[in-house]
Give the backbone structure.
Amino acid sequence: MSALAFDLQATEGFLVADARGRLVGRVECAMYGSAPDVPDALAVRSGFLARRRKLVPADSIEQIDGATKVIGLRVERESIRRFL
């Protein structure tokens, strides 16, 4: 399924994997920036008690599988920015 056809607001709890199939983390919530009703990115928590989050831009998402609840990225894990 294409990322454009999927609602990013409904991805809370999905696993995120990078282009090589390595686990990035779990989606915590959708993040809004340019428009108040359309999410621009996802906040991804990398560990169970991790305080730092990673910011995954919507344009870096290659596909979203709603059946297995996995989001595949087209970028590597190291290129994803961190934030508090």
Q: What stands out?
A: The domain at 8-75 is CATH 2.30.30.240 (SH3 type barrels.).
